[in-house]
Design a protein that fits this description.
Jelly Rolls; four-stranded antiparallel β-sheet; mainly beta; 129 residues; elongated; 0% helix; disordered N terminus; Erythroferrone; signal; 50% strand
């Protein structure tokens, strides 16, 4: 069954996505292709005297919120010293049991507040069982 989109350019089919929690729950066990693209604004530049080392951003797609296990997809982006808008993406395949969920996590070590902009996306497609 195809659900009515909540805004232009968005669609979902089937029972998997929960748009409130941001989680995709697998209706059946199988391999799923996941993808997320986040448009992120660093709202304030780093203060002088703060080193840029360790200024990185990790974006992960994790199963059952267990990001420290191997059941995740991850990308790491080095941040420039100035603020501004940048885009980071993660794509890959994960195996989910029926009823398990996957969701996106942002690990911010930059020390500056970040905002995820509208137009960011998260998708899951069943590839096969």
């Amino acid at each position: 069954s195809l659900s009515q989109p909540e805004r232009e350019g968005m669609f979902h089919r089937g029972p998997g996505p929960n748009l409130t929690s941001g989680q995709y729950t697998a209706p059946i066990a199988g391999y799923y292709a996941f993808s997320t693209t986040l448009h992120i604004v660093r709202r304030e530049p780093r203060r002088k005297g703060q080193g840029c080392r360790g200024s990185r951003l990790r974006v992960l797609i994790c199963v059952q919120s267990r990001c420290q296990h191997n059941s995740n997809l991850e990308t790491v982006s080095q941040l420039e010293s100035s603020g501004g808008l940048f885009t980071i993406s993660v794509t890959g395949t994960l195996y989910l049991q029926a009823g398990q969920y996957a969701s996106v996590f942002v690990d911010n070590t930059a020390g500056s507040p970040l905002t995820v902009q509208s137009g960011s996306d998260f998708s899951a497609v069943l590839l096969g069982v």
